Amino acid sequence: MKTAGANGAPVLEVRHIEKVYGTRNNATHALRDVSFTVEEGDFIGIMGASGSGKSTLLNCISTIDAVTSGTVLVHGTDVTRLKAKKLARFRREQLGFIFQDSNLLDTLTVRENIALPLTISRVPAHDVLIRVEEVARRLGIAETLEKYPYQLSGGQQQRVAAARALVTDPAIIMADEPTGALDSKNARLLLESLETMNERYRATVLMVTHDSFAASYTHRVLFIRDGRIFTELRRGDAPRQAFFERIMEVVAMMGGDGSDAL
Amino acid sequence: MLCKIAWGNVRRAGKDYLIYLLTLTLAVTVFYAFNTISIQVDLAGVSEQNSGMGDLLGGVISGLTVFLAVVMGFLMVYANNFIMKRRKKEFGLYQVLGMSRGQVARIMTLETLFVSLAALVLGIICGLALSQVMVFFTASIFKTQIADFHFFFSLEAFCTTVGCLAAIFVVTLIFNLRVVARAKVIDLMGAGRKNEIIRVRNPWLSAAIFIAGIAAIGVAYVRLLDQGLPYDGQPEGMRDFLITTVTVVVGTILMFYGLSGFLLKALQGVRGLYWRGLNMVTMRQLAAKVNTVSMSMAVIAMILFLAITSVTTGMSLADTMNNTVERGTPVDYTRCLVYWGPRSVAEMNSRKAYAEDDVVYAVATGPVDMMAAGKNDIMNPDTPEAKPFDLASIAGSYVQVDAFDSTPRDGDHPVVSLGDLCEAVDMPLPAGTENSDMTTLGLMVIDESTYNKYLRFRGMEPIELGENGYTITSDMGATVNDVYNKVLGEGIKLEIGGRALTPVQDRVPEDASTFQNAMMGMNSGTIVLPDDLVASLNLPLYYSYLMLNYADGVSVEEGDAYVAAPRTYSDVLNEAGESIAGWGTEASRTVTYESVDSMNGLISYLAIYIGFVLVLACAAILTIQQLSGVAEAGANYRILSELGTATDQIAHSVLAQQTIFFLFPLVVGIAHAMVALKVIIELVALFGGMSIGGTVGLTTLIFVVAYGGYFCVTYLMSRGMVHEATLARHAA
Asked: How many distinct structural domains can be found in chain B?
């Protein structure tokens, strides 16, 4: 089902992107020459303090924001040059989003919320309902399908958002501070779900966070500071606890930013 | 300082205030313009033709102004609440920063004041322009020429407008101050974030309620069509009508209450449609919104119903009068004499015992010569020019028609009545006549030679009744004439005075049935019988009609002036000095035409005024509801955009929602109106066939412009808001 690049291109390739806000005289460089590659089945964390540019990076990759220069290739396609219509289609088919606040439509039931990306893509009703059922079961929210978002706990809402992100089988799942609004128990549950999605269903996940604990669930962490990639950590075969400590070291070295997050 | 903040707020919240400003400005414009009507009527030259029309119109309009002020006040409060809802957080912030409630209240007062003042200025400017244009409109409605057009400004209208606006201002202010005074800071601060709790109703229950509502409306329709309107004020009829009204109101409310659930269930039934594109989002948004505004939608539907009904009825009535006035004015001048009937004579004489009245009443034994009797009237009394009212001095050709009551002097029952005729042809009594005098009192009777005299006067062929012939005349509308035509057409034999009569004509001679000048038909049925039969029936006299054309040497103006001059009305006495009759209506052709024009003008004016204002108010409320809905759903649209929905698609969804919102109350209103109009037409058709056709054009135009205009503005503004919401980057 996965729309893997037949040409063998990586899922995501970010090449020298820059993002400048403001006018020429009063310019703010949010991103400076950022490059990295994500292979299929990766689980990548992007860490950085507030204002470091990590959210801008995510927005640029997900085409919500436009880059000033550089290219973003998804399965070899340059998404920075897509026109509005194609952009919407790209977002719909290639990306899945999980936000800090779950961003569910409050007027829709859980089932409808999860089904939304599929119905927008005009998937036949029969397939829609089967796929929603399946993904809900995977994330353990099958029994909440008829409820409305406001009837769910924050953790459940985030898992619904995760289900919505996964249901289209996207090339990349973009998670922007997904645990930001959750208590530690629910945060752990969500991260474990993401881990499961990644390990068992080979979903590629890109997670922006300033929480070292959340980052320790990933395989690889990019640290951003002042719009540049400051350093990169790979987990390898290390246990999560050890990876967490290595992350904490880097965070401390970067100036203690974000260490207050735990 | 507070002033500066307030001014800044108005400028910054310009978009929110725009709709408020727009509505208020429109209100002021309409307000001012319609309050200048008496001046317009002067300028348009209506008063020269018909003095008093301007005052009458002005009086009616200022009464309506109060009504308008109430409607607009309600609207303003509504629009204002919309703004307040969006700005609660800001007012909370001021308090957090240490401002006292009084200061916050003052900021708010100033804001409202700025906007109201702006609306006043803009509205008066637009109103000035509109009132100048309306002079031409007035002239065309009243069919007059504008003799001397000049720019005008009405201080009185201006003061009324300012007064009303001030009142509205105070009301909105009280509402706003209550919001600030009551709310806790924490609530104000949280207002932006706190998700509106969406009350989800059980869709099955809603669907059931919807069906129940439809059923109630259906029952009310059937009842109304079945029973008609209570035109005669009978308590039973009124009670039935009240029940019908309550049923339809309750039904409408229930229907809108259950609407969302029903739509949801209906669409969910079609899986392929529901789980497709944004359909389910559209439906859910609609459902959520309809739940909170179902009551106001029901009210809007009812108001639209009232507006459509009143406008259409009014305009059609005006149309009818226009169409019948030509047939209704066969001669230059008519006058009518009413004879006292046997029963009224007895009653009036018995009342004399305790009334200071020395007149003795009697039943006339023979017709009064109206030309001669008229000379007892004194023209220009108490002036040197006083002289007898001598119609012979202006008359060319003339004729007097004497008509008898169909109930004999010594009898209780009419020799022929509408009820009898209906029974004979097996037709129900026409709407509006069931309990009226027309049924029981019977037709009027005139003899053959009188009718032939009338026909010759009108330049028509006389008829030949022979020994046993009869015919029926009537210039009323189709409802009554259908019965007569059937009676004549089927050759129904009538048994009168021991003689079996057969009709000599196969339909009612509608053009030879008018005995007096009038806007609408006045002859509801007069049977023409052979002379000897009439004489043998011993019938009391009922009416005498004098129809007169001015002599060749007398111009219409001279003739009209003569009959219009002030004069006293004499008693009509027999040789014994007993009063046998009283003078009835008189009318010249010119006056009848003029009053038709004025009546048309009046009705058209009121219809347009009421219709326009009501539609405007409804549309404005819908607009405000929709815009606030879109603003609230802004986050949802952003999510949709991030999920990869094209802005166009979202806009389509919004359009679909708004179309339903605007269309549904309109459809319900039109459905109600159509049923009501059907009944009204039946009733009004009594006075000459009422046609809806010609007036629908103008009515529709008003609706399309006002309602459609608001719809377009709403959609365009919503699209802008959606666009903005989707452009904004999601807040971290």
From this structure: 2
For residue B228, tell me if it sits in a domain: no
B513-546 pLDDT tens trace: 888 888 777 888 899 999 999 989 888 999 999 9
B167 is a domain residue:
yes
Contact B272 A129 (CB under 8 A): no
A15 against A63, higher pLDDT: A15
Token pair belonging to B108: 């708010």
Does the CB of A204 have a partner CB in chain B at under 8 Å?
Answer: no
Geometric angle at alpha carbon B671, from B666 and B672, rounded to 5° = 100
**Domain boundary pick from B539, B572, B605:** B539
Instruction: Please check whether residue B395 lies inside any domain of the structure.
Output: no
Secondary structure of B452-518 in the HEC alphabet?
HHHHHHCCCCCCCCCCCEEEEECCCCHHHHHHHHHHHHCCCCEEECCEEEEECCCCCCHHHCCCCCC
Distance CA B582, CA B558 (A): 26
Q: Residue A220 phi/psi, 5° resolution?
A: -155, 135
Q: Does A83 touch chain B if contact means CB atoms closer than 8 Å? A: no
Of B659, B660, B617, B629, the residue nearest B725 (C-alpha) = B629
ipTM greater than 0.85, yes or no?
A: no
Examine the pLDDT at B192 and tell me if it is beyond 60: no
Determine the length of chain A.
Answer: 262
Are B394 and B559 in contact by the 8 Å Cβ rule? The answer is yes
Phi-psi region of A53 (alpha: psi -120 to 50; beta: other; left: phi over 0): left
pLDDT band at B195 (very low <50, low <70, confident <90, very high): very low
Structural domain includes residue B496? yes
Residue B335: which H helix or E strand, with range? strand B333-339
Residues of A within 8 A of B268 (CB-CB) are none
Q: What is the least distance, in Å, from the CA of B640 to any CA of chain A?
A: 9
CB contacts under 8 A, A 113-172 vs B, are 115-122, 124-126, 128-129, 148, 150, 164
**Residues of chain A positioned with their CB less than 8 A from the CB of B640:** 105, 116, 120
Residue B686 pLDDT class (50, 70, 90 cuts): low
C-beta of residue B558 within 8 angstroms of C-beta of residue B394 = yes
Q: What's residue B277's pLDDT?
A: 81
Q: What pTM did the predictor assign?
A: 0.70
Q: Which residue among B129, B164, B194 closes a domain?
A: B194
User: Given A85, A100, A107, which is nearest B288 (Cβ)?
Assistant: A107
Residues with Cβ within 8 Å of B478's Cβ and at least 6 positions away in sequence, in order, are: B685, B689
Domain of B499, in residue numbers: 413-539
Chain-chain contact of A107 with B287 (C-beta, under 8 angstroms): yes
Helix (H) or strand (E) holding B252: helix B235-269
Cβ separation B284–A107 shorter than 8 A: yes
Q: Which pLDDT tens digit goes with each residue over B296-329?
A: 888 888 888 888 887 777 777 777 777 777 778 8
Within an 8 Å CB–CB cutoff, is residue A60 touching chain B? no
**Which chain A residues touch B276 with a CB distance below 8 Å?**
119, 122, 125
B269 touches chain A (CB under 8 A): no
Q: Does B274 contact A90 at a Cβ distance shorter than 8 Å?
A: no
